[in-house]
């Protein structure tokens, strides 16, 4: 699906991380020093943040949103929409967006709903926010994304234990004078490539299962196609792109994608070193970390954000982020 929204803007982006940080190197006794060193070298991940047993997804989203609204000096009373993108809701019911609406003291006329998406979820969340604003029914929409995925990681599975981390981010989308172009896709035939609980094994706790090779092949095929189609749709040229913020899966995949798409190394930041793969939060978390530096280098006027993964689903957005305020992550 390709579509263009006018009169919207992303006002600000913030992020929150659990205070508890796990150094990957500390797992060498469990998984072997050579294996841990190999994965650290290929993924570029040296540490991940892990939520405590009492920390919920809405706790992290609340912290990120409080930081965002505080720095922007915006009252919660002015928010009329909230979208929470997560694969780890606080409970099966009610919706976690409803819990977050109450925590934030947003007005009761605020429309609130969850989106159960992962690595492409930020793009889908922005798409839903753009729909609400373009309809004229909302003026200010919060897009909150986050997972506490650590609770679903098999402690004996080094492929996931050494890669995934917990995080959340908040983005304020408003009616404005910018525009955003989207390109979105879904292919449920690959659902079992990355999932929790599809195996239906009795008396077994559902852990995250990932077919790393299948995900790699999917990303290398679909991401360049998606971004190429988006550039054709917008009329932008590849050499004009200031920044391409990809879902932060791992260093190897991002470097491979950058080379395959023949993008400038400075245009594709990699920010997994101290956070790992944070699912739906990875793109806004990256912008929270490096957005101000990119802006100083005038790299945000023509930006592309692209998420891809669980679903399988993938999507990209082309937009101007030069007027966006980026707030560093809090813990």
Summarize the structure.
This protein is an alpha/beta fold and 331 residues long. It has helices at 28-31, 33-43, 57-72, 96-104, 121-134, 158-161, 212-234, 251-260, 282-296, and strands spanning 2-16, 21-23, 47-49, 81-85, 111-115, 140-147, 167-186, 194-196, 208-210, 243-246, 303-309, 313-319, 325-326. The strands form three sheets. Strands 1, 4, 5, 6, 7, 10, 11, 12 and 13 form a nine-stranded mixed β-sheet that branches.
User: What is the CA-based Rg, rounded?
Assistant: 19 Å
Shape: globular
- Low-confidence blocks of residues: none
Q: What portion of the residues fall into strands of 2 or more residues?
A: 25-35%
Order of helices and strands: EEHHEHEHEHEHEEEHEHHEEE
Profile the largest sheet: 9 strands, mixed
Work out the helix count. 9
Secondary structure: number of strands: 13
Proportion of helical residues: 25-40%
First-to-last CA distance:
37 Å
What is the fold's blueprint, element by element?
Blueprint: E1 2-16, E2 21-23, H1 28-31, H2 33-43, E3 47-49, H3 57-72, E4 81-85, H4 96-104, E5 111-115, H5 121-134, E6 140-147, H6 158-161, E7 167-186, E8 194-196, E9 208-210, H7 212-234, E10 243-246, H8 251-260, H9 282-296, E11 303-309, E12 313-319, E13 325-326
Parallel strand pairs: 1-13, 4-5, 4-6, 10-11
Antiparallel strand pairs: 1-7, 2-3, 6-7, 7-12, 8-9, 11-12
């Amino acid at each position: 699906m390709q579509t263009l929204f006018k009169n919207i803007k992303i006002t600000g982006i913030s992020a929150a991380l659990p205070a508890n940080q796990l150094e990957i190197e500390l797992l060498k006794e469990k998984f072997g020093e050579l294996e841990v060193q190999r994965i650290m070298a290929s993924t570029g991940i040296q540490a991940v943040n892990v939520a405590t047993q009492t920390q919920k997804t809405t706790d992290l989203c609340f912290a990120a949103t409080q930081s965002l609204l505080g720095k922007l000096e915006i009252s919660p009373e002015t928010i009329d929409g909230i979208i929470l993108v997560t694969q780890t809701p606080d409970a099966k019911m009610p919706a976690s967006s409803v819990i977050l609406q109450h925590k934030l003291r947003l007005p009761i006329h605020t429309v609130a709903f969850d989106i159960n998406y992962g690595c492409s979820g930020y793009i889908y969340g922005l798409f839903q926010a753009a729909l609400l604003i373009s309809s004229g029914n909302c003026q200010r929409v919060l897009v909150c994304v986050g997972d506490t995925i650590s609770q679903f990681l098999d402690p004996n599975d080094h492929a996931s234990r050494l890669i995934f981390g917990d995080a959340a981010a908040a983005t304020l989308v408003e009616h404005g004078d910018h525009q955003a172009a989207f390109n979105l896709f879904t292919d449920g035939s690959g659902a079992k490539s990355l999932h929790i609980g599809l195996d239906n094994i009795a008396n077994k706790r559902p852990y995250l299962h990932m077919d790393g090779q299948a995900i790699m092949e999917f990303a290398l095929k679909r991401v360049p196609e998606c971004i190429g189609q988006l550039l054709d749709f917008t009329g932008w040229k590849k050499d004009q792109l200031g920044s391409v913020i990809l879902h932060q899966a791992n260093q190897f995949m991002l470097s491979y994608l950058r080379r395959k798409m023949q993008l400038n190394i400075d245009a594709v930041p990699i920010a997994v070193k101290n956070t790992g793969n944070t699912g739906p939060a990875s793109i806004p978390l990256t912008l929270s970390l490096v957005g101000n530096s990119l802006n100083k280098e005038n790299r945000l006027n023509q930006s592309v954000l692209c998420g891809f993964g669980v679903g399988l689903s993938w999507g990209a957005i082309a937009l101007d982020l030069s007027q966006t305020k980026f707030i560093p992550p809090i813990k």
